[in-house]
Specification:
The protein has a single domain, classed as Alpha-Beta Barrel (TIM Barrel), CATH 3.20.20. 49% of the residues lie in helices and 16% in strands. The protein contains nine helices and eleven strands. Strands 1, 4, 5, 6, 7, 8, 9, 10 and 11 form a nine-stranded mixed β-sheet that branches. The chain has a two-stranded parallel ribbon with strand order 2-3.
Length: 298
């Protein structure tokens, strides 16, 4: 009898968890799907349910005011038409940038994020930091004109030994041109080697030499780095700090808030999927929703 009672208790707990997830889906799912479908059908035309989407944005602004800094950091790689998860088609990218522009998001720089986390700066409502990893040529050819069109800032973490050497990557001349229009160029190391595979001497070379090269080419301090392949640990983070960087970005999924480690900044990756724009909306809206229901990021 005792064993049976425990089984009933476990089944009851499991049922409660299922009901919670169903409740989340009932509350948020239809609204997000409807918005996404309208974005998909209407190309880059404004959603017919702008008021409803603005209500979601308003809730996020309220949370930002009540809980302190809360920032969405988007992570892209390629903006091109190849059928690959890291390649977001230009048409989809423009739809996403127009959505951000139309719904009250304000793009910021890494320095603005750093100042806010350090308590030395104030962020606008609905701040978003748009980032790209690796420094592909299509960031210049395809993403750059769209970012200029919607007057959005962005940050590109570049593999310094690849620029001007490999055809599919940016040149330093292109990087300097982009910086004149609000695109910040930062480090993604020298050779894009997974940092956990390297000795301390190799790590130091990747961190210091990429910073020196970028600063020499761009003519200003380079204060931020994105970990290649997202791999890092506390020892690596300490070496990043010792190399003179003010902050480092991971591929750990989540929004940035006051609990964020400045050397392990969260980002929300955006991929090419069967329904890229629907998935984009779900990714940027489900994060505050889950926080509201009590689920915490790790």
């Amino acid at each position: 009898m005792q064993r049976k009672g425990k089984g009933v208790l476990h089944r009851g707990t499991a049922l409660l968890v299922v009901l919670l997830f169903v409740a989340v889906g009932l509350v948020a799912g239809p609204r997000l799907i409807a918005i996404a479908e309208e974005q998909q059908e209407g190309a880059v035309q404004p959603s017919a349910r702008t008021g409803e989407t603005d209500a979601i944005a308003g809730e996020e602004q309220k949370e930002t005011c009540e809980q302190g800094v809360k920032v969405l950091v988007l992570n892209y790689h390629k903006i091109e038409n190849n059928n690959h998860s890291l390649s977001v088609p230009p048409w989809d990218f423009e739809t996403q940038m127009k959505f951000l522009s139309d719904h009250g998001y304000t793009s910021i720089s890494p320095d603005e994020l750093y100042a806010a986390l350090a308590g030395d700066g104030k962020l606008p409502d609905n701040p978003v930091l748009i980032t790209f990893d690796d420094g592909y040529r299509d960031n210049y050819d395809n993403a750059f004109p769209i970012l200029k069109k919607y007057k959005l800032k962005a940050t590109i973490f570049v593999i310094t030994s690849f620029l001007g050497k490999k055809e599919q990557y940016l040149t330093w001349e292109q990087a300097r041109e982009m910086e004149k229009h609000g695109i910040s160029i930062q480090s993604h190391t020298v050779d894009h080697k997974p940092m956990t595979d390297l000795s301390d001497e190799q790590l130091r070379m990747e961190l210091v030499e990429s910073k020196k090269k970028a600063e020499a080419e761009l003519g200003h301090e380079v204060g931020y780095i994105a970990y290649p392949t997202g791999t890092y640990n506390l020892h690596i983070a300490e070496m990043v700090k010792e190399a003179g960087y003010k902050g480092a970005f991971t591929i750990k999924y989540g929004n940035v808030d006051e609990a964020t480690n400045i050397y392990a900044i969260e980002r929300v990756p955006i991929f090419h999927t069967e329904n890229t724009n629907k998935d984009f909306l779900e990714r940027i809206h489900y994060l505050p929703l889950f926080a509201k229901f009590g689920w915490q990021k790790n």
